[in-house]
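[User] Could I get a sequence and C-alpha cells?

[Assistant]
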Amino acid sequence: MVDEKVTAVGPVRVHTISTDKYKTNTIVWKMKAPLAKETVTLRALLPYVLQSGTADYPSVKALRTYLDELYGATLNVDLTKKGEHHIMTIRIDVANERFLPEQTPLLEKAFQLLADLLFRPALDGGRFVTDIVEQEKRALRQRIQAVYDDKMRYANMRLVEEMCKGEPYALSPNGELEDVDGITAEGLYRYYERALAEDELDLYVIGDVAEEAVLTAVKQRFSLPDRPKRERASSVSVKPQGEVREVIERQDVKQGKLNIGYRTNVTYEDDDYYALQMFNGIFGGFSHSKLFINVREKASLAYYAASRLESHKGLLMVMSGIEPANYEKARRIIDEQMQAMKNGDFTDEEMAQTKAVIRNQLLETLDTPRGLVEVLYHNVVSTRKRPIDEWIAGTDQVTREDVVRAADKVELDTVYFLTGMEATEDGKTGV
C-alpha cells in the first residue's frame, strides 16, 4: 500500500516514499531523544529558533520572503512526545515542479533550505542571535501559558503529571515555564550542537521523487559523523499497581473536568495492540462509543466524554466535562462502561462499526503527507515494525475474545477532577 524505502546515510535514516498521489513534495526531518527534565525546555525552544533564520536569510521576514519565492513553499516546526521520547519535527512542503510552467528545481532548493536551517542557522559571534532567542522565549512562555488557560488541555496535562510522577512521561513537550528565563543564546547553541551529535535522526521525503536522486541530495547536504548506537529505553511503565490515586483541584471554573488515567499494559510493540485499539474505539474513542452514548447522550452528565490511547507508553486517558455536582454519578457510569468492556458486554454491530471507523481513520490519515509520516514514524519509535496493510488486516481479524483480553489488562491508576471553589456534595477537599 505504501512503498517506503529506508536507507542509512551516516547517522540519518532516509525514508523515501515515491508517489504521484500529491501535487506537493514534502520533506520531514525528525530528531528523537529521551524526555528529560534538564533538556525538555531547551528542546521546546530550539526548533522555533532554527526556523527564525539562516546564515543567508537571517530573519523571519527574509526567510518567509524566500519561501514565497519558492511558489509559496511552507515551513513548519512541531514538538511531540511519544512514549518517553521527545521529538522535534521540521517540515517543508513545496509544489511539484512538474506542474509549474517553469522547471524550477524546487525540491533541490527545499533540501538546501532544510540543510541551511539545520547546519547554517543565523548566528552572532558563534552563538544564536540573542534577539531571536529572546523573541522565541516570549513565544514559548505564551504556548506554555495557553495550556493553563485552556482548562480541557490543562486537565489532560495535570492528569499525566499526577499519574506519571517520577516518570519522564510526566514532562510536557513544551517544556517547563520556570526554566525558560535561564536559557541563553550561548547555552541553547551548545545544546543544539549536542542534539545534532546525539539524537536519532530521520528524514522523510514523500512525493513524485526518485530514491536515487533523494539519496544523492542527502549525501551532498546532510553529512554528519556517525555516532554510537543508543540502547533503546522501554517506554512501558514499570510502575507497580498500587492504590488508585484521587486528586481534586479547585480553581475558578464553572465546568468541572473529570479525567481518569488507566495503565493498559499493552503498547504498540505487543500482539494485543490491535485489540487494544478496538477496545478503545468501543469504549470511548468514537462517537458510537459507550462513553459518548451512556455518559453524554443517555445520562446527559457530560458536555463531552471520550477516551484516547498513548500507544508507546501504555496509557488510556478518559476526558469528560461535567457539572461539579455530577462527579460521583459520572465516575460511576464511566466505571460501569469499563466493566461492561471487561465482561464482553458489547455487540457484533459495535465491533463491525469500530473496525470500519478505524480503517477509514487510518486511510484518511494516509491521504496527507503529514499523516503518512506520523503513521510510519511509529515504526521508528517502536522496535516493532507494522506495515500499513498489516495494520488494516490485523484490525479486521480482531475477535471479541481479543478485545476482552485487552480490556482485562487495563488497570485504573489515577482520577483527576478539576472543579470550582465550592465544596462538592461529599465534602472532598482539593489539592
